[in-house]
Every structure is written in C-alpha cells, then in structure tokens.
C-alpha cells in the first residue's frame, strides 16, 4: 500500500496485518506456541539468518500472532516497521538502549517511569541524559551541538497537556544529525501522526488507548525498518516481547480504536467547555480549548484533541480530594485511555514522589484533577462532575 492509495485509518485498524487461517477465521488466530517446526534444516536456517520471513521463537517476537499485530501497529502510524512489547516502558527501555548511547534529551514533562529511567537508571550505565522543561527549550541547541543523539518527548504531555511542535523539533534534531522519538500515547494515532510530521520513532503505552479497556499491558514502537531493527535485538534479549495472548487482545482492541477515540474526543471537548464555565473551576487545560496555550500548534498538528484533560479546582489539595471522593461515575484511579472515565490528582499518583519545589517547577498543583474521559454519555459525566464540585469547600 503506498501513501496515496492506502485505505483510511479505520479500515486499516480492522484489516491491516490480519492473516486468515485455513478455517476462514476473519482474524489472525492466537498461536500460543513458543517454538515453530520447519520442514528442513535449510528452511530453519533461512529464518534464523533472516533470509526469509517466518516464525521461529516467541520471545524473539517471531510468532504469527505478534507479527500480525506488528503489521497492524506499523500501519496505524504509517511506519515501515513496528515492534510490540510487553509494556510501554519495555518499548522505551529498548529504544533508549538501542539509540540513546550518544545521549538522550527529554523535552517537557513525561510519565514518571520515563523520568526515573532517564534521570536515575540510564546514567548508572554511563548514558548521559538531560531533562528539559518546555520553557528551557533554548538549551536544546546546545545539547544537540554537544552530540546528544536522541530527543524524546510526549505531546500532549502528562499531566498538563503541554503541546510541542513536532515538525519544528524534528527539523532541529535532524539538522544536528539527531533523531526524534515521540510518545504518542496521549494523542493516539487517530489524533496525531508524528512520523508524517517528521519524527523518526513513535512509541506507545498500548496499555492506554490502543488497548482501550484497562485490561491489558503492552507497548509499541514504530519507525523506519533500518532504525527499528537494532531495537528488536534489545527486545529479544531483554525478553520484552508480549505474550501471544496479549498480542491478540491488543489487535482485537485496535479494530475499534477509531470509533472509541472519536467519541472520547467529543466527550472531552464537551466536558472541557462545561468545566470552563463552572464557577468552582479556576482553569481547564485541554488542547481543544482556544484558551489553551498550545491550542494553535495542536490545531495544526492534531486532527482531534484527545480524551485527556486537566481541571483546576478553586480550593486546596484537601478540598480537591473532597471533590474527587464525591465522584460516582469517574473512578479514582491512575492510568488512562480506557472506556471508563478515571480521575486522579497528579499529586497523589503520577507526581506523588516529587518535592513541592519540583512540582511547582513543573506547574503541578494540589488543586489539579486529571480526567481520562471514557465512553459514557458526556452529559452524565458532566452531571457527575457538577455534583462532585458542589462538595463543601472544607
Ligand atoms: N508513556 C505514557 C505517556 C504513559 O502514561 C505511560 C504509563 O502510564 C507509559 C508511557 C508507560 O507505559 P506502561 O505502563 O504500559 O509501561
């Protein structure tokens, strides 16, 4: 399929990568096998030596269910190649080990596990890392000139939905011979296509929108085959390919990705607009609102604004917890991207371990509630928030 003639994303979500079996199953079956038999030693060597594609050993990812999922994942992001992982962190760790040896710059806020890997763990292996916030972008040129080879960012970021200009940052990285990796978890491939905008790699916590039902843990990496190949070597020996059962569940979920995300976009926009008018809400951060500082860039590079938003309550941390505790439809839980709506105060979960000063530097306050908007009726969700916001101010 070339770019001009390829079917639309919703069609690819359903059909890409699917291999019908001899019985006519409309989807790739689950091959729970760990190893695969060959008709001859020559046929085995062809696969071992990469001369011919084929299945060999499940930990290598060379299993038809995993390979079928990977063809679908590649198609989602318009990539030449994709790898599936047992988690989003598995994808990040393999990417950093394969392509981060000259130094990794993380731009903007990121998921806590990513920050731990970059700030504490990779430096223990002698890998230099630099963590810049959005307002420190001017230091990026300096680091790239110093030979840092990989720029990593989320957009929109967790949890304040900061937006980075993927096209401009890809140009900057490439001008210095560096590569750009975008964590596209929050946007999903439905709302944003980083490879088309010039990024070299996309990673996903497939645990979130791609899985979509809060019932599986998986990760994905997409990019040009030449860049993805060395990552596969790390995945193989770190042992972080997904189980075939999980791969099949993830492929099942991706078939409905587009309709889920479209509905989540609409629900989140309706909630953001209602919350912006609410007297007990100080601020709403949602890229689909004209008031969001990144709205113009988001409107340019995203085709939808996603299901994640942040509301800031007029009240302190305890008063905000009281609002969260009164929610009935929204569950109090970390994670995101599922069909059910979730609410969490970042100070109690994703940013719990940070000092007050560090939280302030990252613009995180105790009055913030992060919402992951699901597939319930938008008016029901708004009514739930309104009744919770009528909690006494404490
Ligand atoms: N990237 C983002 C934006 C995340 O929110 C998360 C997890 O919350 C991860 C990566 C890590 O993914 P996983 O939990 O699947 O390892």
Automatic annotation (TrEMBL):
Record key words, sorted: Pyridoxal phosphate
**Assigned protein family:** Belongs to the trans-sulfuration enzymes family.
PANTHER family (UniProt xref): METHIONINE GAMMA-LYASE (PTHR11808:SF86), TRANS-SULFURATION ENZYME FAMILY MEMBER (PTHR11808)
This protein's cofactor list reads: pyridoxal 5'-phosphate
The reply to whether Transit peptide figures as a keyword in the UniProt entry is no
Query: Which InterPro entries is this protein grouped with?
Result: Cys/Met-Metab_PyrdxlP-dep_enz, Cys_met_metab_PP, PyrdxlP-dep_Trfase, PyrdxlP-dep_Trfase_major, PyrdxlP-dep_Trfase_small
Protein name per the record:
Cystathionine gamma-synthase-like protein
GO MF annotation terms:
carbon-sulfur lyase activity; pyridoxal phosphate binding
Q: Which Gene3D superfamilies does the entry link to? A: Aspartate Aminotransferase, domain 1, Type I PLP-dependent aspartate aminotransferase-like (Major domain)
BP-aspect Gene Ontology terms: methionine biosynthetic process; transsulfuration
Instruction: Please name the SUPFAM superfamilies in this protein's record.
Output: PLP-dependent transferases (SSF53383)
**Is-annotated flag, keyword Transit peptide?**
no
Cleavable signal peptide: none
CDD domains recorded = CGS_like
> Which parts of the sequence carry N6-(pyridoxal phosphate)lysine?
208
């Amino acid at each position: 399929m070339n770019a001009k003639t390829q079917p639309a994303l919703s069609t690819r979500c359903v059909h890409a990568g699917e291999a019908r079996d001899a019985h006519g199953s409309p989807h790739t079956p689950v091959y729970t096998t760990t190893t695969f038999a060959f008709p001859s030693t020559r046929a085995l060597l062809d696969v071992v030596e990469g001369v011919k594609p084929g299945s060999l050993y499940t930990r290598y990812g060379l299993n038809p269910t995993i390979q079928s999922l990977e063809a679908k994942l590649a198609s989602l992001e318009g990539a030449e190649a994709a790898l599936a992982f047992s988690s989003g962190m598995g994808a990040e760790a393999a990417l950093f080990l394969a392509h981060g040896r000259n130094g990794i710059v993380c731009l903007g806020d990121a998921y806590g596990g990513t920050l731990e890997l970059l700030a504490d763990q990779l430096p223990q292996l002698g890998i230099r890392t630099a963590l810049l916030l959005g307002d420190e972008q001017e230091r990026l040129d300096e680091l790239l000139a110093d030979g840092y080879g990989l720029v990593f960012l989320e957009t929109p970021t967790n949890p304040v939905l900061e937006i980075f200009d993927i096209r401009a940052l890809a140009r900057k990285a490439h001008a210095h011979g560096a590569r750009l990796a975008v964590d596209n978890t929050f946007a999903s491939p439905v709302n944003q296509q980083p490879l088309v905008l010039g990024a070299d790699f996309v990673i996903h916590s497939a645990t979130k929108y791609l899985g979509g039902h809060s019932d599986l843990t998986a990760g994905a990496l997409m990019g040009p085959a030449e860049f993805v190949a060395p990552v596969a070597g790390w995945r193989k020996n770190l042992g972080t390919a997904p189980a075939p059962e999980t791969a099949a569940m993830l492929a099942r979920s991706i078939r409905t990705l587009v309709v889920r995300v479209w509905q989540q976009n609409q629900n989140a926009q309706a909630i953001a607009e209602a919350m912006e008018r609410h007297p007990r809400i100080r601020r709403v951060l949602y890229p689909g609102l004209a008031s969001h500082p990144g709205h113009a860039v988001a409107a340019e590079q995203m085709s939808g604004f996603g299901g994640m938003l942040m509301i800031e309550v007029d009240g302190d941390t305890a008063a905000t917890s009281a609002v969260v505790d009164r929610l009935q439809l929204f569950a109090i839980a970390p994670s995101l991207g599922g069909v059910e709506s979730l609410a969490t105060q970042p100070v109690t979960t994703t940013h719990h371990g940070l000092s007050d000063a560090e939280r302030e530097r990252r613009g995180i306050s105790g009055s913030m509630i992060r919402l992951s908007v699901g597939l319930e009726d938008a008016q029901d969700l708004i009514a739930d928030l309104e009744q919770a916001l009528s909690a006494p101010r404490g």
